[in-house]
Design goal:
The chain has 171 residues and is of the alpha+beta class. The chain contains three helices and nine strands; from the N terminus they run ββββββαβββαα. Strands 1, 2, 3, 4, 5, 6, 7, 8 and 9 form a nine-stranded mixed β-sheet that branches. Strand 7 and strand 8 form a beta hairpin. The radius of gyration is 15 Å and the shape is globular.
Length: 171
């Protein structure tokens, strides 16, 4: 079954749908995504290295899970689905952080809703979907901030900004 993603206007109102597999992000059409920062009860952030067949292949992401919103789905429903699909965790409560418009250097235009999820888990509880995620790590905030500052090219765009949003909400 093909996934249909909503195409929205500048007010984030749905105007049409597109098949995700054939959608060309460089057309300038605006789509929706979610990004979920996942933190365990020890204050460790789950980061993921994206699979080679994904956008930003092989790069690290401070979102433990991220992806497109499907047609007819809310941002929160997409967040729940992506976390379960990509890392096999069930989240009871998502804390909305920020929704914003972003245009990448490649001209990809999207609304991104970021969420924070705090739950009791460790690495052994994470079950990655290899088509989506190459590997994961649990990292303390200060260490992760330093890694990003020293190796920004190893992280996808918006990683530092999304991490900052999460830390402000978490504190």
């Amino acid at each position: 079954m093909s996934e249909i993603i909503p195409i929205v206007n500048e007010k984030d109102e749905v105007i049409s749908g597109e098949n995700r597999e054939t959608f060309d992000k460089s057309t300038g059409k605006i789509y929706r995504t979610v990004s979920v920062v996942i933190i365990n009860l020890r204050g460790e952030i789950l980061i993921q290295r994206r699979a080679m067949n994904k956008t930003y292949p092989g790069l690290w992401d401070t979102a433990g899970a991220a992806g497109h919103v499907h047609y007819g789905e809310t941002y929160a429903e997409a967040a729940e689905r992506e976390v379960e699909e990509e890392v096999g965790l069930i989240v009871d409560k998502f804390i909305p952080m920020k929704k914003f418009f972003y245009e990448s250097e490649k001209g990809h235009r999207r609304f991104m809703q970021t969420f924070l999820a705090v739950l009791d888990f460790d690495e052994a509880d994470v079950e990655i979907l290899p088509e989506e995620v190459m590997e994961i790590k649990l990292v303390k905030f200060e260490e992760l901030k330093q890694i990003i500052e020293e190796n920004p090219e190893s992280f996808r765009d918006l990683s530092a900004q999304v991490l900052e949003q999460a830390v402000k909400k978490y504190d």
